[in-house]
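Lab notebook, bench 4. We co-purified these components, and the gel suggests they stay together. Before we commit to crystallization screens, I want a quick structural picture of the whole thing.
Request: model the full complex, all chains together.
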Amino acid sequence: MTQKSGTPLNDHITPEQLFFARRKFMRLAAIFGTAYALAACGIEPKTGLSLTPTTTPANLQDTLTPEESINHFNNYYEFSFSKNDVADLAKNLKTSPWQVEISGLVGNPMSIDAKELITRYPAEERIYRLRCVEGWSMVIPWYGFPLNRLLADLDIQKDARYVRFTTLYDPDQMPGQKSSSFDWPYFEGLRLDEAQHDLTLLAWGVYQKPLPPQEGAPLRLVVPWKYGFKSIKAIVKIELVAEQPATFWSSYNPAEYGFYANVNPNVAHPRWSQANEYRVGETGQRPTLMFNGYENEVAFLYEGMNLKENF
Ligand SMILES: Nc1nc2c(c(=O)[nH]1)N[C@H]1C(S)=C(S)[C@@H](COP(=O)(O)O)O[C@H]1N2
Ligand SMILES: [Mo]
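Here is the predicted assembly.
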């Protein structure tokens, strides 16, 4: 069974919903075909699906953001700066075959097709909040597997302290990469212990379907306690490295975007407050929570650190 770290179930996830999720998962296996069904076989038969939803403070009603909104309100600068245009501009992205290189300070480097990688690890549904640094948020039902499962198979060398991720570079398919304002391809990084945290997900599905291109198909990162820009899409490379890697937004504007990018209502962006957020589909604002509401799970990672300096 893949659920560990005692992540409590949401108050709002009822047994009926768990049952429903299980039935949906059976459908998911059918949608994805044999390979994915095989992945499903790795899961304890009684449960059928390892549900590891977010921990939600009792006073916060987290409703899933509609699929339509999730799929048509996207940040993906490889395609457009305009959130509503991404879905259409990305729709022909060729996501198979898709080679992922896993390299750097590991005993077991590999180059593996995304489909094969995905089928190696049992699928889990993870309902996570996503909070963009711009001040909007969603609640998204992802499918994927914890990155730590893959990391455990790599024979990580002892001087590896960070993980670096890179997006596909293909300006013909990703016209935004023809713009010289940015240092393409998109690149991101996590400290190794952040990457190994059970909440850190490699996602390949959303709403019981494979990720659509605009959502980062075929494989993306989801780090729910950090601003959305850490959750890099369309990953082609995962490297274990010794030094803190440079990251896309921090390289573009180091005064405004840091390496850590932990959601923090007490540390304002230089140009706007981060105290509140707009939940897509709602009216008005709601308060932004420390570490996006995952404080109990992740605060230990930053004990003794100055979060204003390490923003
Ligand atoms: N490769 C790549 N990954 C990316 C981005 C991007 O422009 N390119 N945008 C980031 C930002 S700013 C956010 S908020 C999330 C948005 O994810 P969504 O479109 O699935 O909501 O993706 C992140 N991952
Ligand atoms: Mo974002």
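Residues 15-32 form the longest helix (18 residues). Worth comparing against the SEC data before the next meeting. The mean pLDDT is 87.
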